Amino acid sequence: MATRTQLGPRAAKSLSKADLLDMYRLMLLSRRLDDKEIQLKRQNKIFFQISGAGHEAVLVAAGKALRPAYDWFYPYYRDRALCLTLGMTPTEMLLAAVGAADDPNSGGRQMPSHWGHKALYIVSQSSPTGTQFLQGVGCAEAWLRYGRIDAIADKPIKGDELVYVSAGDGTTSEGEFWEALNSSSNLKLPVLFLIEDNGYAISVPIEVQTAGGSVSQLVRNFPGLLVEEVDGCDPVASYNVLLRASEYVRQRKGPALVHAHVIRPYSHSLSDDEILYRPPKEREEDSRRDCVLTFPKRLIADGVATETEIEAIKRRVEEDIDVATEMALASPQPAPETATRYVYSPDVDPTSEQFDTEDDPQFGGDPTTMVDLLNACLRDEMTRDPRIVVFGEDVADASREQYLGQVKGKGGVFTVTRGLQRQFGSDRVYNSPLAEANIVGRAIGLATRGLKPVVEIQFFDYIWPAYHQLRNELATLRWRSNNAFSCPVVVRVTYGGYLKGGAIYHSQTGAVVFTAIPGLRVVCPSSALDANGLLRTAIRGDDPVLFLEHKHLYRQTYNKAPNPGPNFMIPFGKAKLIRDGQHLTVVTYGAVVQRALTAAKLLEERDGVSVAVLDLRSLSPVDWPAIMASVQKTNKVLVAYEDSLSWGYGAEIAARIADECFPWLDAPVKRVASADTFVGYAPGLEDFILPQVEDLATAMRELHAF
Description:
By secondary structure, the protein is α/β, with parallel strands linked by helices. Helix content is 38%, strand content 14%. Strands 10-9-11-12-14-13-19 form a seven-stranded mixed sheet, with helices on both faces. The protein has a five-stranded parallel sheet with strand order 1-2-3-7-6, sandwiched between helices. The longest helix is centred in the N-terminal third of the chain and has 26 residues, at 17-42. The protein starts with 16 loop residues before the first helix and ends with a helix.
């Protein structure tokens, strides 16, 4: 039976001599791995290094207090000692440093110290600071949703697991940190925040970053948030505090924040030189608190260990690192052709025949609008799959459930989600704070644990606070983790003009900003029927999808359709030839489709010109075979789109047509799009700026006459 050893008045009763010696071993192992990587970088055997030096004590304590493959972990780049304590090996860490194919963190796709380990529930970390906070909140929220959704039979939750998320003091300046505290406190989620405060964010000191110089003082008024402060260079004191905080969280009392004061004895990274901004006296003061130096002396002084035992630990650490280094340097690099693997799901292909039931709709009822058929699809899919949760700004009928019997219910600004809360309950359909990054970040965490979020961003014009989460997190998680993790979130967003009064901040398009992102599917239906089938494919797929819904098209009578039934799907990457023609092709999408059809009809009636109109429907992937087939048939092509003319989505389509279809072209590729300005409020301004029927007809005549 292990003996329990007291180590001064702050000792944790649960720590044995073996525990204390192992804590020292892990701290030293972490430090020596940093040193080895620095050596390898200087030998040009690795390509980047950022250390966790000075943070080891609190991180080993966290690893001892928490449970690998039980709790979930969203670490940051200083968390080497935590990952070692949870079970990651020195070899696995050095495999990341050399960029080896067998690196379990990312398969050589990310910088070293970007931790990720599927077996240990360490979720792949990215470089942007602070983005992990909201994902950790979403991961913790999954426990809440699984527990409350009775229709889910297999609930992958344990009841008292928690989510660890860490960052440095500088990262607490990010808005997403505060959004995460707000949501986790509001929902009483089991999140343990660890702030590792070494006093600097690269060269910017804490008093410049944080009002009053202490983030723990600033956050104490969040309801239900336990706030603890500790000397993070003391592993025993840190263990006590972290154990107490974790028990608070496990008992579902709310989230906890531990503010640990640590040091940074090395520069921020090998790309930084702290001598340029830190005086010798300050660095010397840090060295006197260095846990790798002070803790073994303390163990000897308190009679816990002998000098012989300490020396044995040092030898073992050096031997382990030598072996790990040898193995890592001998490990093969990834084959170059593997670079394109896992951009999208290798298991579910939304472009395949599996998702093509377009030729067999089971129509029922009268023709209805895009809003109604989107709502019908959501109802069908939520009935089919209880893992689907819908949230965003204003999507619920009424957040205050006691009012549901007294009000009609909102269900979104455009009523796409009306009635869903009443039918499926407030644990599956609920409102979020007015914070777009919060919506997408939480959705990523929920999806990582197996739920299927279908979230709404109210207006495309306000999607930009979420761009960090969309571009750097949602689209990259599968690829950067080498297929260890995925987050198949559907992000619905309204966009576009032709509204009369929408003006600059309610009429934006800009699809090209998102189609340029690998890993993200982007679709844009122009009819009620297509909206129903494409949304169903998005939900049943396994990739992140940005689902663009044009506000102008929501209630148009010309694009109505009957309900096609609960299994109607349109595959991604399948364009629709909605008007055949002989003389020229118009390639378009969204609200410009109907205008192109009207212009084509006018041209045929007035000029006898036969115009084919191809509705792309899916913007990424795009149906290149359909485009090429029509161009080869008509030999002339007009690309029409609502983005600005310059640098818009149509520019890439036009360039590729010119590149791949040049032998069949009898005229230059022509474009019609919005003016290179913003959409104005006055109707005359809007009409001038956005492509109109006459603009399209004029371009068609000019192209035909070439």
